[in-house]
Amino acid sequence: MLAPLTNQQSHENGQLSNEELKWLTMRAEGGFGLVMTCASHVQEVGKGFSGQLGIFSDNLNEGHIKLTTKIKEQGSLAVIQLHHAGMRTPPELINEQPVCPSDNEETNARGLTLKEVKQLRDDFIAAAIRLKKCGYNGVEVHGAHGYILTQFLSLETNKRTDNYGGHFKQVSTSI
Ligand SMILES: Cc1cc2nc3c(=O)[nH]c(=O)nc-3n(C[C@H](O)[C@H](O)[C@H](O)COP(=O)(O)O)c2cc1C
Q: How much is the pTM?
């Protein structure tokens, strides 16, 4: 299995480049039974790297379909990793203030409104539906390395007082 490896080879608008297509296809040709893409952002505001492959819009589907087709032609499984960098988004990549669970002085990221948190949840789901349509065999959610999901899990970065913050025991089921 090829671990997810951010290679920064895609176009700045999130579209798959021929270089990234070639690199990942070569891994399948080389015998990996499962090829996972790099971390792929589910919202433009969650872009973590220059040259990152995106999965935030149907406009990007063509590249993903090409990629899954090529990987599967080699008998390998195509899997994508879903990602949102949150406060770790470099502001110069998105030309706006990065977002995270709560205002964060250290990174100058702003806390999401409740409406935006629900949109974030919906955009992870929309990306999952999109990737299935694009032919991926599976998906991994990037829940590590201090990106937005771990920012929500940490009491240091998540100071929310609504249903998306607080101690685990206080979380109501009515989100
Ligand atoms: C250049 C590079 C890019 C990486 N990109 C990602 C990534 O996009 N998503 C992820 O979850 N891990 C990423 N990782 C972590 C690797 O998937 C892997 O977990 C880590 O390198 C440990 O495995 P290893 O001991 O075989 O190197 C990256 C690692 C490297 C070296």
A: 0.94
